[in-house]
Amino acid sequence: MQTFIFGHRNPDADSVCASIALSYLMNEEGYNTIPKVLSHIDTQTKYILKYFKVKEPEYLNDTKVKIRDIKYNKKAYINENESIFNTFNFMQKENITAVPLVNENKELKGFITLKEIAKYLIGGNKNYVDTTYDHIIESINGIGLLEFDHEIKGNVMVASYQAKTLQEEIKLTSDDILIVGDRYKVLEYAIESKIKLIVLTGNHELPSKLFKKAEKNKVNVILSKDTSLETVNKVILSNQIKSINPNLKPVTIDHKAYRSDFISMASKEGYANYPVVNSKNECLGLIKVTDTDSYTKQQVIMVDHNSLSQSAIGIEEAEIIEIIDHHNLSGLGISVPINFRSRPVGSTCTIIYSMFQEKNIDIPYEIAGLMLSAILSDTLVLKSPTTTEEDISVANKLAKLTKLDLNKFGYDLIKVASSIKGLSVNDVINQDFKSYNVGNHELGIAQIMTMDFNEIEPIMPDYVAKLNELQMGNFICVVLFITDVYKNGSYVIYNTESEKLIQDAFNLKEIKEGIYIPNLVSRKIQMLPALLEVIEKKV
User: Fold this and answer.
1) How far apart are CA 388 and CA 23, in angstroms?
2) pLDDT tens digits, 101-128
3) Which of 41, 148, 152, 324 could form a disulfide with 218 if both were Cys (CB 3.0 to 4.6 A apart)?
4) pTM of the entire structure?
């Protein structure tokens, strides 16, 4: 089974590069992993991937359990031209009370239940069949004697009359099917009338003279070991299953639909069985409501985050097998033990570098480049307060591997990330936005790196309005930090109601929108702890 590796919902360089690097490492060990991203990649990360010629990870919408993850019956469908007899036996074999009907291309054409089959057998027309020669043989467990027509259509009758009465009162035609025992006068009349089919019952043989005449007149003949009465009751089972009033527009469920949505739908519809289809209306099987308790969870590895609120939609339905992170721990609520590697370093890729060393696996140029980029980005070229000696050591080793000038390349990355030209207010705020649970509320912190605060300042009221709009949800505070790496500080814009909170958190004598706070650059060890301390006292 494939394991997805991804970072938080607003992927930055460390999140994306860590996913790719870890996936490479694990695949070298023989695992089957795929790096993913949970939303669009920012400008800096795009630059890094392009620089090192690495393909962008594919987008992962969610990790919720889907119908395709449920262990439903993937063999439970039958061709609409199959006989009632074969359909019933198939349903018994598969232990199902309903079955989807499909054509030769597996397209869903209808849906039949045991209840409908029972209704037909009790009150259906037993005097006509529209079937095939082979289906009749299967239904009555007969033996084919003469076959001239594959398709058999006609009125069914049992020869209960005397031969003379039959000849005088009933005109047989090619639209008739006669079920008869060793009544040779009747057989002769039926053959001379060139009827569609004779079913000779009681395990009797057709005399040579009549055989030759039947062959000449192209009359189909099947032998049955049963009595005429037993045979007629079985012949009706040879009819095509589609002939007994199937539901032509059944309620279906797409194989990509969510399990939770299916449970809700099934509760409203009230049926026990549903055909599973794809976008082409091809039938993939049958799902019972009782099947929903048996499913396979998507295996995932979380990097650069450990908070479920920052992770994939539906993460609570996935199987988290490992977490690698460098942030503060949140309440995960995981019910089973997992591999958890957390270190107080400046970048997740610093941790992953140590894993390469532990496994004694060589780091190729492009992976080394991604990891170096992530470390430089997350530590603001090794100048952030989060930077450790280990980050510096690993960055220098990776710079040596890639033959890159650490400082020049680092500042190129910051320069790429700092441009906000062409971005809307919403784009800027959501570029790197994270939410944190605080009691029954949330704290929202957005951070961007830019030297272009002069482009933000004239439209600052638009930013305040957007933050006020966000705060109207479940947020107790929403704040945007515009970090200037060269000045080594941040400008702060916040929702209006949080003015006193911001002032208290950063011990400011005066407070206003867009205030500059020197030496404030790290969300993890400066911004977040200061805000949490004040908020926790408040709530």
Assistant:
1) 25
2) 999 999 999 999 999 999 888 877 778 9
3) 148
4) 0.73
